[in-house]
Amino acid sequence: NGFELKHVLAERLGVPTDWITLGNGSNDILELAARAVAQAGDEIIFSRHAFAVYPLATQAVGARSIEVAPTSLYGHDLPAMLSAIKASGDKAKLVFIANPNNPTGSYLTAKEIEDFLVAVPSNVVVVLDEAYNEYLSPEQRYDAIAWVKRFPNMILSRSFSKAYGLAGLRIGYGVAQAHVTDLLNRIRQPFNVNSLAQAAAIAAFQDTAFLQKGFELNRAGYKQLTQAFDKLNLSYLTSAGNFVLVKVGDDDEAGNRINLALLKRGIIVRPVGNY
């Protein structure tokens, strides 16, 4: 049941323990959300250039993916996503929103997200995926927990894999009102998060000094990379995460060539030509 970790999370976040679902990484939370509310014939909506798990989770439950074209800066076009919900009639069951977005690094303001949540019909569940939330600058941050308390059709998904450094232990969590959390826990595997991961998450969640150090190192690394991109006349997208998407050539294979060349030097990047 993750008793101790749930209590640590609940106390910090200011929510009841029965609002928390533990996952085998935040991936697990995303897949549980799809399984809990959608089935064959339903529709799940997300931005075209967003996390690759969204279409996979949709396919796994037999639902139809509705990919909404992004903004000019490859971010979420929330008005277009609202239009997609309305166009679907009663088929739309779930919307995935990543903020910051993977792999483009785009960022949605608090007002943009709140306006969207207000406009979404109450029978459509909105998953706000905040796997990279801890990398937001102070001026970008907002209180997503307040939205969970206000909107009964919202699930907040977060991860210990990124800023907390526990990717290999596979642990994340979801926050939603009790009636939604109950659905997630009915279909969750009973032992989906092992005890070592839970203990590590408790320690990591309370290590604010480590979190701040990681935030500062990430900002310095982003500055180092983007200054080099500017010097090399490479175009890139402004990122609010711990990664930056850069264009390394005009042909389809440029990313793969650079990826292979860097691998030979012991550096792992991620080609995104599949997008």
Description:
There is one protein chain. The chain has 275 residues and is α/β, with parallel strands linked by helices. The protein is 41% helix and 13% strand. The protein has helices at 3-13, 26-37, 53-60, 78-87, 110-119, 144-150, 178-187, 195-205, 208-231, 254-263; strands at residues 20-23, 43-47, 64-68, 92-98, 125-129, 154-159, 172-175. Helix 2 packs parallel to helix 3.
The rounded distance between the terminal residues' Cα atoms is 38 Å
Assess the beta-strand content as a share of residues. 5-15%
Biggest sheet features? 7 strands, mixed
**Cα shape:** globular
The count of strands amounts to 7
Low-pLDDT stretches = none
SSE topology string: HEHEHEHEHEHEEHHHH
- Taking Cα atoms only, what radius of gyration do you get, to the nearest Å? 19 Å
Mean pLDDT: 96
Report the helical percentage: 40-55%
Supply the number of helical segments: 10
Query: Going across the major beta sheet, what is the strand order?
Result: 1-7-6-5-4-2-3
- The structural class is alpha/beta
Based on the model shown, name its key terms.
alpha/beta; 10 helices; globular; 275 residues
Give a nutshell description of this structure.
With 275 residues, this protein is α/β, with parallel strands linked by helices.
Write the topology of this structure.
Elements: H1 3-13, E1 20-23, H2 26-37, E2 43-47, H3 53-60, E3 64-68, H4 78-87, E4 92-98, H5 110-119, E5 125-129, H6 144-150, E6 154-159, E7 172-175, H7 178-187, H8 195-205, H9 208-231, H10 254-263
Parallel strand pairs: 2-3, 2-4, 4-5, 5-6
Antiparallel strand pairs: 1-7, 6-7
